[in-house]
Amino acid sequence: MPEAQPGQKYMLYLHVPFCERLCPYCSFNRYVYRDDVARPYFESMRKEMLMLKDLGYDIESIYVGGGTPTVEIDELCETLDLARDTFDIKEVASETNPNHLAHPYLEKMQGRIQRLSVGVQSFDDGLLKQMDRYEKYGSGAEIMERIAEAIPYFDSLNVDMIFNFPSQTEEILRSDIEKIAECGARQTTFSPLYVSNATMSKMASTLGAVDYDRERRYYEILDEALAGGEHPRFRRETIWTFNRLDEEGHDDHALLIDEYQTAYVAYPAIGSGSITHLGDSLYVNTFSIQEYNDMIAAGRMSIMGKAKLSKHDLMRYHFLLNLYRLRLDKRSFKEEFGCSIEAGLPAELAFMRLNGAFATDTPEELTLTPKGRYLVLVMYRQFLSGMNNLREQARAALSGPERQLLFGDGTSA
């Protein structure tokens, strides 16, 4: 891990890879929760965080992902308290699951976590059962009740949804959209279902094959229902993130986007299976929990590999990320890369123009048409699928039981 850039402030990503049960479509680094494994792991993360301090990192924001970060709530609280004692932390965002929107979890998270993202995926009981989530997280109605109870505990509560499940009908999708409007959450993400090579066969056997032909229709339905018309209920913040509006059409709260890659281009990451992005390089931490603990105990960070990105790669990433945020500033692109976007990415720009992707295409900026938003959705979905395949490559380096991508029923990929 390189030393920090002087004067730069960073977001820190923490990866907690434990879940009580494992979903069939998830490719993140995750293991079935065991108390005797989780507690030493959190201790290692706290040591690794202090190593970043020694390297000069000035951390102002934290994002905790998983897995289920709140699965060992006391250890998470101790880790966040240490972060606040060590750095000048302005805010903490974390993911969780609906069963943790309960006491005493809420009391322990209050004040420590400002932005909470709840993985709901769908309120439909049939889908929840297919995803092996009904038993562990409750019915759609029960989840709605928990969301309403949890909202006052946080500055922002985001409800994370997925669309285009194989057995999801338009009726189910429209019902989920209405429940989002009813539940009171200030923000929602509706991401398309994306899989990796390892999860594809398992998901097909439990949920069915993904139908990408209808993905655009489903996206247009939810985009219009949430943010379309003369009096929209939400405002688009990214391609698939929406912020609630009040009755006069104004934001009811100053919300940040609940996706850390869009808020910070460069960030260190700690924990087994986490991926750091600094400068022109990606650094991948070992996916073995045992190896991770051993390396931290030996006073070394747990990086197992590094990939250096070319200037063209970085330009394409900038192009994708900014269009995902709905606007690309051409002047900022030129300042960062020393050339215009027309000179740096002629093929990419020509493709988007030929397909009518841009609503605004001036010397200053690019913005998107409805078709353009869907094209960017496809590109970003495939980018995330590619990251999942990167995780599979890292997992392939493991041996024994850690190599298996286990699911809720105890079977492996």
Architecture overview:
The longest helix has 27 residues, at 370-396. The chain is built from 16 helices and 17 strands. By secondary structure, it is of the alpha/beta class. The protein has a nine-stranded mixed beta sheet with strand order 9-10-8-7-6-5-4-1-11. Helix content is 42%, strand content 20%.
Uncertain residue segments: 406-413
Rg calc: 21 Å
Number of strands: 17
Mean pLDDT equals 89
Count of helical segments? 16
Query: What is the helix content?
Result: 40-55%
First and last CA, distance: 32 Å
Strand order of the largest sheet: 9-10-8-7-6-5-4-1-11
Strand content: 15-25%
Shape: globular
Structural class: alpha/beta
Biggest sheet layout: 9 strands, mixed
Helix and strand layout, with pairings?
Elements: E1 9-16, E2 18-19, E3 31-32, H1 35-54, E4 58-66, H2 73-86, E5 91-96, H3 105-109, E6 115-121, H4 125-130, H5 134-137, H6 140-150, E7 156-163, H7 170-183, E8 187-192, H8 197-206, H9 215-227, E9 234-236, E10 241-244, H10 260-263, E11 269-270, E12 275-278, E13 281-285, H11 289-297, E14 303-308, H12 311-324, E15 327-329, H13 330-337, H14 341-344, H15 346-354, E16 358-361, E17 365-368, H16 370-396
Parallel strand pairs: 1-4, 1-11, 2-3, 4-5, 5-6, 6-7, 7-8
Antiparallel strand pairs: 8-10, 9-10, 12-13, 13-14, 15-17, 16-17
Helix pairs in contact: 1-2, 1-11, 7-9, 12-16
Condensed summary:
With 413 residues, the protein is an alpha/beta fold.
